[in-house]
Design a protein that fits this description.
heterodimer, A: about 600 residues, alpha/beta, Rossmann fold, 6-stranded parallel beta sheet, B: about 170 residues, Alpha-Beta Plaits, 4-stranded antiparallel beta sheet, about 25% helix, binds thiamine diphosphate, binds magnesium ion
Chain lengths: ~600, ~170
């Protein structure tokens, strides 16, 4: 490597490759031109994908990482290019997804002078990254890239950003390729627990008659699904999971209670209410899971296993906190486990499952759960499903059955609309041989649909199922339930003809209108060798149930459309929709 | 939420890297905590800094901030110390206006608090005092009877007593 002089930009691309980065997404621009020049012929194994919006670049890197377990890089220019990635970085940060973000920056002597396209990206992104660098010396490149990769992928993973002034990219590199990582204060702990802690956990589990295990994203991130299965089967304990924990425990397993929380199953929520022990593994107990935090497992012994020490007591204070990697903890726990006596409890839960199964209506038109259930059947749960955010996401979570982690990719913590399509592109690039399906809503899809071009260019066989209810459906549902049916700014009039839109990109565009056509249209899309979009004209006013209304405990599940609305806006003097219509003589807004 | 709003002493040992101070400050501001005083100085190891922060707030919130600070990539340790566990010192410089009539009284106060006169002019003098923050408060309060032209305090620095680590 020493014969030819190389510049900072080339050193940076080579360093990324040396770390094993195989995929980069981005858009070039003034401050990133040296880096893009290096991409032109320096890279050997790394693939580069030109996107249509920097937010999509970050979501694509995110989807790639979730589908493969390997981080990808994002490479964008300064100012607007960098700022456009912020939504995607925040999405990855909230869901603990590893990512390396390289942003071009104004030259060093221009920093802080309001140069063209200068934004203080280092400070702007600080709250949404795991760590970040402002690269000031060309010879630091190999060390900083190694550190960034290490930080992004170890402990609780997350995005790391490196801001690269243009002139650092053009400086000649004379540094040491093998400069070691220098992170004296960074010590990700795989097993920060004492042996006594494990014994305490084993004793508590053995004493429990009504245990519930709650499995989160951490189980997927640490690859602990086998250990989780062993734990559940040994204890004969039921398992429920968070949105991102979907697939960490097989949906088809008799011990599975499926999802928990706001739109989780009624039986999972009831199980948590009645449990005498809750073992939380790799979940941060988000407010969408807890209902009222102080009510969550009020009478249960709570055990919390997490790699991030700061999660203990953040939302719920556990009796036993175990700081460590899920897989390591569960492996070390195995020899101490005793078979639990839970027959009576499982029998009771079986009754709940029979009493409150997940159901959906088939009346009045095409219902999204019908399509998802059929997709699940057709693919046997083996497709990688990405979702957008809203009702479409919750239905996908409820009705797509999968038995493995990384089969269900969704923006959990951030709830970022627009995530579905770009994350599917990333997942498909990472898993070229698998069927990737994006389930999206008409609102969210329109936020990032510019990357249909990327899909078409790379002829990626992603199947998009667009649940077109012509509404910001989830918001409409809330306005229906909690805001006196005052539907404010949720009607998506002006939607384009999505099938034609797909066709304009050379993508197969199909319309689905009748439930009887579901198998035929799904098969047609799946059998098509390239990308396809199904515009499903679904009923406009379907709602997602069960639902635990916000601010209510998990004991207060609403099972179906309530005749009496569970809430009204605080301090509201508004007339209810019915009275409003009476007094004005007007009809309800058309739908 | 507990209502115990006390002043807390935190000591943070942190790698001396760009951005470290901002990340720590954000851990406080994001949770609505106000930093009362902040002292940053080189640690015994050249590449590490020592920060002493005093902040007001409830215990629960503070525990979360300590955990979030500890989690930062550059932070080696973040600990809370009670007043009893540490030696705490602060330095104050006070510029007091003087006229012949009051000069003696000002100097008496200075003498009482073992403050040194580090600048002496016709119209003003500058006192330097060290000690606990409470002692400095007391001195400054007495001096307010005369005219304080300027006041500069360093903020509290702390060191754990005996075998404890700061
Ligand atoms: C970027 C962003 N903006 C706003 C929201 C708030 N929000 C959550 S769900 C939703 C409606 C989504 O509508 P659509 O994509 O059509 O999906 P549907 O609920 O109808 O399935 C909105 C606006 C969000 N989550 N993300
Ligand atoms: Mg919609």
């Amino acid at each position: 490597m020493s014969e030819k002089k190389i510049n900072g930009a080339e050193a940076l691309i080579m360093s990324l490759e040396r770390c094993g980065i195989e995929m980069t997404f981005g858009i070039p621009g003034g401050a990133a031109i040296p880096l893009y020049d290096a991409i032109y012929d320096t890279r050997k194994n790394m693939k580069f994908v030109l996107v249509r919006h920097e937010q999509n670049a970050a979501h694509e890197a995110d989807g790639y990482a979730r589908a493969t377990g390997k981080p990808a890089a994002v490479l964008v220019t300064s100012g607007p290019g960098a700022v456009n990635t912020v939504t995607g970085i925040m999405t990855a940060h909230m869901d603990s997804v590893p990512m390396i973000v390289i942003t071009g920056q104004s030259s060093r002597e221009m920093l802080g002078k309001d140069a063209f396209q200068e934004a203080d990206v280092f400070n702007l992104t600080m709250p949404v990254v795991k760590h970040s660098y402002l690269l000031k010396n060309v010879n630091d490149i190999p060390r900083i890239i190694k550190e960034a990769y290490h930080i992004a992928t170890t402990g609780r993973p997350g995005p790391v950003l490196i801001d690269v002034p243009k002139d650092v990219g053009t400086d000649i590199f004379t540094g040491d390729w093998d400069a070691p990582i220098n992170l004296p204060a960074y010590k990700p702990e795989k097993c920060g627990y004492e042996p006594e802690t494990l014994q305490k956990i084993a004793d508590a589990l053995a004493a429990s008659r009504r245990p519930v295990i709650l499995s989160g994203h951490g189980v997927a991130l640490s690859g602990a699904e086998k250990e989780l299965l062993h734990l559940a089967e040994t204890l004969q304990a039921p398992v429920t999971s968070t949105l991102l924990g979907k697939g960490t425990f097989p949906d088809s397993h008799p011990l599975s209670l499926h999802g928990l929380g706001m739109h989780g199953t009624a039986y999972a929520n009831r199980a948590i209410v009645e449990a005498d022990l809750i073992m939380v593994i790799g979940a941060r107990l988000d407010d969408r899971i807890l209902g009222i935090p102080s009510e969550f497992g009020k009478n249960a012994v709570k055990i919390h296993v997490d790699i991030d020490h700061s999660e203990f007591g953040k939302m719920v204070t556990p009796q036993i906190a175990c700081h460590g990697d899920a897989k390591t903890v569960l492996q070390d726990l195995q020899p101490l486990l005793k078979r639990g006596d839970t027959a009576e409890w499982l029998h009771r839960l079986e009754g709940f499952k029979k009493k409150w199964p997940l159901t959906f209506s088939r009346r009045g038109g095409l219902h999204p759960p019908q399509i998802i259930a059929e997709l699940s059947k057709l693919t046997k749960g083996r497709a990688i499903v990405t979702t957008d955010v809203g009702q479409n996401q919750m239905w996908a979570w409820q009705f797509y059955q999968c038995d493995k982690p990384w089969r269900f990719i969704s923006s959990g913590g951030a709830g970022t609309m627009g995530f579905g399509l770009p994350s599917a592109i990333g997942a498909q690039l990472g898993r070229p041989d698998e069927l990737v399906v994006a389930i999206v809503g008409d609102g969210g899809f329109q936020m990032t649909m510019s990357d249909l071009a990327t899909l078409a260019t790379h002829n990626l066989p992603v199947k998009i199922i667009l649940m077109n209810n012509h509404y910001l459906g989830m918001v409409r549902q809330w306005q229906d339930m909690f805001y006196d049916e005052r539907y404010s700014s949720v009607d998506l009039e002006g939607n384009p003809d999505f099938a034609k839109l797909a066709q304009a990109y050379g993508i197969l565009g199909l319309n689905l209108k009748r439930a009887t056509d579901i198998p035929k249209i799904l098969k047609k899309a799946i059998e098509h060798p390239g990308p396809a979009l199904i515009n499903a004209e679904v009923v406009r006013r379907a709602e997602v149930y069960p639902m635990v209304p916000p601010g209510k405990s998990l004991a207060e599940v609403v099972l179906s459309h309530p005749r009496r609305k569970p809430g009204r806006p605080a301090g509201s003097r508004n007339k209810t929709a019915a009275k409003r219509i009476q007094s004005s003589g007007k009809k309800e807004p058309q739908s | 939420m507990s209502k115990d709003i006390r002043t807390h002493n935190l000591s943070i040992f942190v790698a001396n890297r760009p951005g470290a101070l901002v990340r720590i400050a954000q851990a406080f501001s994001r949770r609505g905590f106000n930093i009362e005083s902040l002292v940053v100085s080189p640690g015994a190891r050249g590449d590490f800094s020592r920060m002493t922060i005093t902040a007001k707030g409830n215990q629960e919130g503070l525990e979360q901030i300590i955990k979030q600070c500890t989690k930062l990539v550059d932070v080696m340790a973040c600990r809370e110390h009670s007043d009893e566990e540490v030696v705490a010192r602060e330095l104050a410089l006070v510029k007091v206006a003087i006229d012949p009539e009051h000069r003696e009284l000002v100097l008496q106060i200075a003498d009482h608090f073992h403050a040194k006169t580090v600048d002496f002019n016709e119209n003003s003098l500058v006192l330097e005092a060290t000690g606990s923050s409470e002692k400095l408060d007391a001195m400054v309060n007495l001096l307010r009877k005369y005219k304080i032209i300027e006041l500069v305090r360093t903020g509290k620095v702390i060191m754990a007593r005996g075998d404890r680590q700061t």
